[in-house]
Design a protein that fits this description.
about 575 residues
Length: about 575
């Protein structure tokens, strides 16, 4: 098994410089808080969709998720297909409704739907719990990189956190989605190449299935990682993938059709990824049945199975690409969360409670400051988790489940059902949060028990509250008026359309990545050349396709036509 060398470190350095360049490039797109937090609702759906996809997983997929694949086999595919189905739910129900809310943050919707008290309660609770999930993502990345490079875990956390903060602060949501697109252009070709290289070592799919232990080739009905667990997982992620940072992608595009395209693209990519991502860890199970013997210093060596696959099957340089891909996955998720939390702190707390008359410029500066604050706390929490040797999978499961089952039901049900009083949101949220915390920290419920014991009472509280709906507030009436009104092109006529320069920039940047990867042919032996050429070819194909995407969007053409008609 190889270890990273100077070639890989050069690749990582070039990647970090590229991400900094993205932040500097998109600074010019941000002239107001609206553009900083939701891109002026002019982000192309293809860019927003790939950004949402990248934000839907992180290095946790390649550490905690890979650990499940290594130990339990094909059940991990079922878990990630649950995410695929959750985005389909977004396509049919929630994407268009989120876009019609015409908001900058999810918390603005909560204020209209349930009132200021619910707004503030959700704002503080969301920030608190998502700090822990963000820290777990950063910890997962540090585990991955430190294992491959023999770096200090704490040093990795500090350096990576600083880079993510830099381009998130400079570019806002535009930096997040453009960087996510570039990261997807690195990650997807890499995953295809690594999956193919892994399968070649075990004789293809048939060799993989034949060589896996029997319990890894089927999914039981009961127990941990059984079918009941898979169904409960799909229910849980349906809340997580249709609220919070994911919802932000839905209202960052120009209209409902574009928002639905975002959801459909994410669903298709998660379907592909469900099979692609977890081939290497299962191959590693065959080649290295005891990873603890290789890395005895790791508390959870199964979570390093993807690292083992990359170090075993890839040449130098592409190992660096692998590490850059892990940076990509985690940076995508963390930068999205940093932007979301800074939006909540700036608009939903700072402006609402302290500075109602704050200018757009003031909110822009406040957003950058809040991003630094959130990022700093996240980095500190990640360092604490690393020092304690926490399981990444368990930390993510605990806090993701807690926030999804308390925050998700009132947020999504309130978007669809109109006749509930103002207190229905906070009552449903409190029910889910209290029961979830009791289950996690007092009774030690299993994941299945969490779903069974938390969701039915939360739903019951929400629907029973309909019996007490006496008078509709002005905010709720206005919200549902917007929800029943399709987006008109004239609503975004004043927002500049950056789709042309964005796609040209992305095409050139991705082509540069593909061409630069050919330089890896120099330090590697002939046997590694086909792997390198395959990665370069896939990346260049992506760059070519981006160049031919039309610059004008449907709504921008309609706006132009309207302007010509008026003149």
């Amino acid at each position: 098994m190889l270890v990273a060398n100077s070639t890989d470190y050069i690749v990582i350095l070039c990647y970090i410089l590229l991400m900094i360049g993205v932040g500097l490039y998109v600074m010019r797109f941000n002239n107001s808080a609206s553009e900083y937090f939701r891109g002026g609702s002019r982000i192309p759906w293809l860019v927003a969709g790939l950004s949402a996809f990248m934000s839907g997983f992180s290095a946790w997929t390649f550490t905690g998720g890979a650990g499940v694949a290594y130990s339990s086999g094909v059940v991990v595919i079922g878990l990630y297909l649950g995410a695929c189905l959750s985005y389909l739910l977004g396509y049919y129900v929630f994407a268009s409704r989120w876009r019609r809310t015409r908001i900058s943050t999810v918390m603005e919707y909560l204020s209209d739907r349930f009132g200021p008290m619910t707004h503030q309660t959700f704002s503080w609770a969301t920030i608190l719990f998502q700090l822990f999930t963000s820290a777990a993502m950063l910890y997962g990345l540090s585990l991955f990189v430190s294992t491959a490079c023999q770096f200090s875990v704490t040093a990795t956390i500090l350096i990576t956190g600083a880079v993510i903060l830099f381009y998130s602060v400079l570019g806002g949501l535009w930096a997040v989605v453009v960087a996510d697109f570039l990261q997807a252009s690195i990650l997807l070709p890499f995953c295809i190449v690594l999956a193919a290289a892994s399968l070649m070592h075990v004789g293809g799919f048939s060799g993989l299935i034949h060589s896996l232990p029997q319990h890894m080739k089927s999914i039981p009905v009961h127990g941990e990682f059984g079918w009941i667990y898979v169904v409960c997982w799909a229910v849980m992620v349906s809340f997580g993938y249709n609220t919070s940072a994911m919802a932000q992608r839905y209202f960052s595009v120009e209209d409902e059709r574009a928002a639905k395209h975002v959801a459909l693209l994410c669903s298709g990519l998660f379907f592909l990824g469900s099979f692609l991502w977890f081939i290497p860890p299962m191959v590693v199970r065959i080649i290295y049945p005891d990873l603890h013997a290789i890395w005895p210093h790791l508390s959870n060596p199964n979570e390093a199975s993807y690292v083992a696959a990359s170090l075993t099957f890839l040449p130098h340089g592409l190992i660096g690409v692998m590490l850059a891909a892990m940076f990509s996955a985690t940076m995508a998720n963390l930068s999205a969360n940093f932007n979301l939390k800074s939006a909540i702190l700036s608009k939903d707390i700072y402006q609402t409670l302290f500075r109602p008359q704050a200018s757009e410029r003031e909110l822009l500066i406040t957003g950058a400051i809040m991003t630094v604050l959130v990022g700093g706390i996240t980095i500190a929490l990640a360092a604490i988790m690393a020092a304690r040797g926490e399981s990444i999978f368990q930390v993510m499961m605990t806090f993701n489940t807690l926030i999804s089952l308390s925050y998700g039901p009132p947020a999504l049900l309130g978007l669809v059902f109109r006749r509930t009083p103002w207190w229905s949101g906070i009552a449903t949220f409190a029910t889910g949060l209290v029961l979830g915390m009791l289950g996690d920290f007092v009774f030690s419920w299993t994941f299945i028990e969490q779903i069974v014991f938390v969701l039915p009472p939360a739903f019951t509280v929400f629907f029973l509250s309909m019996l007490f709906d006496r008078q509709e507030s002005a905010g709720r009436a206005n919200l549902f008026k917007r929800l029943n009104t399709p987006i008109d092109p004239s609503e975004i006529s004043d927002a500049p359309d950056f789709s042309g320069p964005v796609f040209r920039f992305l095409s050139r940047a991705v082509a540069g990545i593909g061409l630069a990867s050919l330089l890896l042919l120099i330090p590697n032996p002939p046997a590694a050349r086909m792997t390198i050429i395959s990665f370069s070819a896939i990346t260049l194909a992506v760059a070519a396709s981006l160049w031919f995407i039309p610059a004008g969007t449907r709504s921008s053409r309609n706006v132009l036509k309207m302007a010509q008609d008026k003149s």
